[in-house]
Fold:
Amino acid sequence: MTHAYRTHHCAELTAAHAGHTVRLSGWIHRKRDHGGVLFIDLRDHYGLTQLVAAAGSPHLEMLDRLRLESVVTIDGEVVDRAPGTANPNLPTGAIEVRVRGVTAQSEAAELPLPVAADTDYPEDIRLKYRFLDLRRERIHRNIMLRSKVIASLRQRMIGQGFTEFQTPILTASSPEGARDFLVPSRLHPGKFYALPQAPQMFKQLLMVAGFDRYFQIAPCFRDEDARADRSPGEFYQLDFEMSFVTQEDVFAAIEPVLGGLFEEFAHWNREAPWAVTPTPFPRIPYAEAMLSYGSDKPDLRNPLRIADVSGHFRQSGFGLFERIVGSGGVVRAIPAPGTADKSRKFFDDMNEWARSEGHAGLGYVTRKGGEFGGPIAKNHGEAGMIALFDALGLGPDDGCFFAAGKELATARLAGQARTRVGEQLGLIEQGAYRFCWIVDFPMFEADEETGKIDFSHNPFSMPQGELEALETKDPLDILAYQYDIVCNGVELSSGAIRNHRPDIMYKAFEIAGYTPDQVDTNFPGMINAFKYGAPPHGGSAPGVDRIVMLLADEPNIREVTLFPLNQKAEDLMMNAPSEVTEKQLRELHIQPRKPG
Structure:
């Protein structure tokens, strides 16, 4: 008995099926009228099949009347396409189906956005009609990639000896980290649950409970503003934790997972696969990253390296830089190789760009055939410039940009300038995924205005040197077993070897201004558990959305998410957030107070 809707899907038929009677179901993707002969591309989840209704066919009028995206079931005969009309780009490109019967399953209204075209369309329309947007080839392909990536991650983690567990969605609010999404309790008036920003404490408690290697494709919820690489509201991460491990053990466990994953999908929708950094990935100390790349998430596809040249300007005819260095500031140099053919405008435009980004400006030196140009070179002197360029390894036709000021702000400007120079000069390596670990983050930092010591990264990380370091070293000199994994300038995750000892935790929080009672009150579950025997443990949580965004080569995370919120954290399709009834509010013991 023939199936009610299909005998084959729309990517299945080949020349081997010629002469067969088939039934297909799908959406009318495109229509083309060639002198009374109607050609239709029928689309389903799997692909396209071309249909043909010849002149005089009793079904031509119905097919011609139905709008694009109407759902139909077609009975027909598979025939070879006419010579010269085959489409080698389609699995079904050698055949077409002559229509013998049509059933309209669902007629489409006039479309608010085109499905057959991948042209840009306003975001508000795309998100309001996301179910239509998801029919478009690129977005459909991205979502399928996401599914395959998650399946591969699961298999790879299980292959590494990890076990998947599910942690709670309703939990307690935490004073640390981003802003929580709160859920009012009906049974406990005036009290609230929080949606988890991450399963951080639960996964550590799993280690205390003795489960050794945990992982989860975990939903996380943070009330944050949107960015290109961060969704407002919710996201997913490959959350994992391991017991009895060092930092290098964590790296050795996850590098084959991520490296193997990127190698597996390096060919996705590309003529040639992209290159992937071989394991082990480079380890770059935080201080080196901030100096050489101006960022703790460096893009290693860019070959440019920033250098500290403060020493060259301690005594200089260029008074501005001499004064900056003399007052404790720094001068950083960003090479601009091969710029002898660039006009003065190229360098002036970089300076204007820096000002548009809120910086004081970006100095520069030009060099053509060994001849220096620009105010810095004129005032610093030829001998000084030759010594500086020799130290930087720059040649007679290379230029250089300079950022100067307080160290942190200067590092950031230099990092932004490095990226822009690399892009402007076409130096960024194409077709590659370049990974690195950023390690040796400082445990503490001082507020620039108040001088108050606080945690710089993760307060639950183990300090390098443990309790002895906390008791004997300047807090600003203490490093932590914290690490980030970065790919092409995108931070995939932060992680750490955890502080599993209560005595070390109390001391670390004391340095940051917390009392033992505050630690006990704010983190009761974890600190209490650690008092009953906790193993050394550590882990990380690479972002699934960001991984898929990189593999799909998409600029925005919304392009790889099924039903994303817009920039204002609104779901335009479901009209969320929305007001609720007075009855619901009374049940939750809530009286709303609107701003005003």
